[in-house]
Specification:
There is one protein chain. By secondary structure, the protein is of the alpha+beta class. It has two domains: 135 residues, Jelly Rolls (Sandwich), CATH 2.60.120.10; 88 residues, Arc Repressor Mutant, subunit A.
C-alpha cells in the first residue's frame, strides 16, 4: 500500500483525528503513524493493561473502547485520575519512566495498539511533526489534570460533575464520537464517584438535581445536554484549556 492509501486509511482513526486538529501531517507522517498501529491487542473489562510499579512497560494507543487511569492507595482505595477514550495515548509516562506510576483498566472491551519505547523514538526521529503532535496531546492531558485539581479543590459537587461531563463531551466531539446534544457514556456512578472524589450516593443526588433543573440527563449509558449553554455557564466551563479551536501550529 503506498503512502497516500495508508494516509487515507489512518486519517479517520480517532488518534489521527485528534492530532490533525493541531498539526498538519503529511502522507509520509501518517504512514509512520500507521506503523504504530501494527501490534493491535484486545483487553477485557477489568484486566489491567498497565500496572503500577511495573518496569519496562509499553504504552498503547486506544483504538476503541474506554479505559481509566488510577492510583492505588495504601488503604486499598483508589483515585481515578483520568478517563481515556478512543484516540488517547495510554501510559506514555510508563515508557519514559523506569517504573509505571499508575494502573490503566479497561472500562469496556478495548482494542489498543501496543507501542514500545524504541518504536516511538524511531517514529519521532523520522517525523518531528508527529513528535510535536504527541507532545501537544501530552500537554493537553496535563492541562486536564490541572483542571481536575481545580474540580476537587474549588468547585462544588454539582459544578465539578457538570464540568467533567462537558469536558468529556468536548473530547469526544474532537474524535467524532459526540456532539452538542450529548454522547454515549459507559461510566457507572461508582466510577464517576472515584473520578470526582465523591461518594456514589452523592453522585446520584447531583445527577438527579442536574436532570430536574433541565441541564443534563445521564441515563441508560447516554449523556444528553438538555440545556448546553446554561450548563456551561453554571459550571464555568471554558474549553480553552483543551486547545481544540486554535489554528494549526505547524
Amino acid at each position: 500500500m503506498n503512502e497516500t492509501n495508508v494516509a487515507l486509511s489512518i486519517q479517520d482513526s480517532p488518534f489521527a483525528r485528534k492530532l490533525l486538529a493541531f498539526v498538519r501531517l503529511s502522507d509520509a507522517d501518517l504512514a509512520i503513524m500507521s506503523d504504530l498501529y501494527r501490534r493491535r491487542r484486545r483487553f477485557a473489562v477489568g484486566v489491567d493493561m498497565i500496572h503500577q510499579g511495573q518496569t519496562d512497560q509499553c504504552a498503547y494507543v486506544l483504538a476503541s473502547g474506554w479505559a481509566c487511569s488510577y492510583k492505588l492507595l495504601p488503604g486499598g482505595g483508589r483515585q481515578i485520575v483520568d478517563i481515556q477514550i478512543p484516540g488517547d495515548f495510554l501510559g506514555l509516562r510508563s515508557i519514559l519512566f523506569r517504573t509505571s506510576d499508575h494502573n490503566v483498566e479497561p472500562i469496556t472491551p478495548v482494542q489498543a495498539s501496543e507501542v514500545r519505547q524504541r518504536d516511538l523514538i524511531a517514529a519521532f526521529s523520522q517525523t518531528p511533526r508527529l513528535a510535536t503532535a504527541v507532545l501537544w496531546a501530552a500537554s493537553r492531558d496535563e492541562a486536564m489534570v490541572v483542571e481536575h485539581l481545580v474540580d476537587l479543590g474549588r468547585r462544588t459537587a454539582t459544578e465539578r460533575t457538570a464540568h467533567f461531563l462537558l469536558e468529556l463531551g468536548a473530547r469526544l466531539r474532537l474524535v467524532g464520537l459526540g456532539d452538542r446534544k450529548g454522547f454515549l457514556c459507559p461510566l457507572s456512578q461508582y466510577r464517576l464517584a472515584d473520578t470526582l472524589g465523591l461518594s456514589a450516593v452523592h453522585v446520584n443526588r447531583v445527577l438527579r438535581e442536574l436532570r430536574e433543573e433541565g441541564l443534563v440527563t445521564f441515563q441508560k449509558g447516554r449523556v444528553v445536554f438538555d440545556d448546553f449553554d446554561a450548563l456551561v455557564e453554571m459550571s464555568g466551563f471554558d474549553r480553552a484549556y483543551l486547545d481544540h479551536e486554535g489554528p494549526l501550529l505547524i
